[in-house]
Amino acid sequence: MARTLIDPAQVAASDASRRAALDDDFAALAARLARNGGDAERLVATIQRFAVAIPSWGVGTGGTRFGRFPQPGEPRDLMEKLEDCAVVQQLVRATPTVSLHIPWDRPADPARVRRDAAELGLAFDAMNSNTFEDHTPGQRSYKFGSLTHVDAAVREQAVAANVECIEIGQRLGSKALTVWIGDGGNFPGQLHLRRAFDRYVESLRKIAARLPSDWSMYLEHKLCEPAFYSTVNQDWGSSYVAATAVGKQCSCLVDLGHHAPNVNIELIVARLIQLGKLGGFHFNDSKYGDDDLDAGSIKPFQLFLIFHELVGAEVEGSAGFAPAYLLDQSHNVTDPIESLMASAIEVQRAWAKAWLVDRARLAECQEKNDALGALQALKEAYECDVRPLLAMARTRSGGAIDPIAAYRASGWRAQCAERRPVPRRTTAGGIVG
Ligand code: RM4
Ligand code: MN
Ligand code: MN
User: Does any ligand 1 atom lie closer than 6 A to the CB of residue 291?
Assistant: First the structure.
């Protein structure tokens, strides 16, 4: 049994006033679903097996280039970040793993961190390398790129940084490396576009050569930022070409905020599934760019349509289909713990609704070119209020019926403000500041 940071008696008290209503709502929904051959119990079991990883950089307050408004009790080091992740997991029960960012989270003693995390009921997901900023004085600078830099010595240093991530990850029990680079050009003519991409693939191959045989490597593309004219791994097509060139263990990771406005992301997902190169996701939401807003807060229907593709692939038995799910958000005006809980539930909600789609009926509509009927088949699933299923799955897994209410009642943030008075770190440390 994992050590619980929120007193279970407090969670039970929060649940007590909600239990009867949940039982009523669940029974009503189960009856409704049964009328169309649905099985609420089976859905609860399906929801219970859903998991999405927490980004270590998501538990601190984020910021924009205009400023950051830290809140009291922010985690000051890796262990405190893990504590906050454990609180999310205790109440939500859909976030059993944490994704680390190196060197922001470089552990002094990985074996010990692994043990302490396990005690909190947590394990480690994909490792993220950071060659988009300079870390150590005296190091070669990434100002003009890392894996794609014109200088081979800088490329070597960036490859070594990724290899270090793998080595730390092995000691933590991780099985994947996610590579996102900020490389690109700010001005036309700055980069030789084809040569920069060639150097990217060459560096990636060197990293892949150091990948343990049971590991995966994910390439994360991004339209722009920090380079604002051209980005080396700009879109899913570039990412696919690079992943294919690197080999079997390498696939593409889709961050929902890394596309041009209005791009049909579910279509990209379908293509990557079809090509056997969908590695995983960074879930978040956006209105304009890489806004890193909470998953499902702006375009919940899009999130559902993405899961419709994912569940479809699972149902149709796409071989070896097991994408990695991670939240990648920046919480600027909310309590990060609350945002992470709400986001995990949003992603889980999209997953649950995707399982409600009547696929036989949808296929029939498609065969008959019944466009309206097909949309209706999707909308029926999307519009179903699955909250009782989610809450039932959560409480049966040991979480809270209403995680945000239970968290607010627990006083965790106020306790942290006392226990974690001043930020320990004074230098910049990525999103966590
Ligand atoms: C990037 C990208 C990466 C994340 C960094 C912090 O925009 O989304 O996944 O590691 O931000
Ligand atoms: Mn990302
Ligand atoms: Mn991003």
Answer: no
Average pLDDT, the chain: 96
Percent above pLDDT 70 for the chain: 97
* pTM for this predicted structure: 0.96
129 φ, ψ to 5°?
Answer: -90, 155
The DSSP 8-state label assigned to residue 284 in this structure reads -
Closest C-alpha to ligand 1, atom 9: 180
What CA–CA distances, in Å, run from 153 to 142, 147, 181?
Answer: 11, 10, 17
Pairs from 394-399 (Cβ < 8 Å, separation ≥ 24) = 394/92, 394/93, 394/94, 395/15, 395/22, 396/44, 396/48, 397/48, 397/93, 398/90, 398/93, 399/90, 399/91, 399/92, 399/93, 399/94
**Sign of the dihedral through C-alpha 21, 27, 29, 30:** positive
Q: Which ligand is nearest to the CA of 225?
A: 1
| Assigned token pair, 299 | 């375009």
Measured CA to CA, the distance from residue 196 to residue 222 in angstroms comes to 15
142: Cα within 13 Å, side-chain hemisphere: 23
- Map residue 397 onto helix, strand or coil: coil
Order the strands of the 176-179 sheet from edge to edge.
Answer: 54-55, 97-102, 123-129, 176-179, 216-220, 250-255, 278-283, 324-327
Q: Is 112 left (phi over 0), alpha (psi -120 to 50) or beta?
A: alpha
Query: Probe ligand 1: pick from 54, 220, 233, 239, max atoms within 8 Å of CB?
Result: 220
pLDDT single digits (tens) 90-130: 999 999 999 999 999 999 999 999 999 999 999 999 999 99
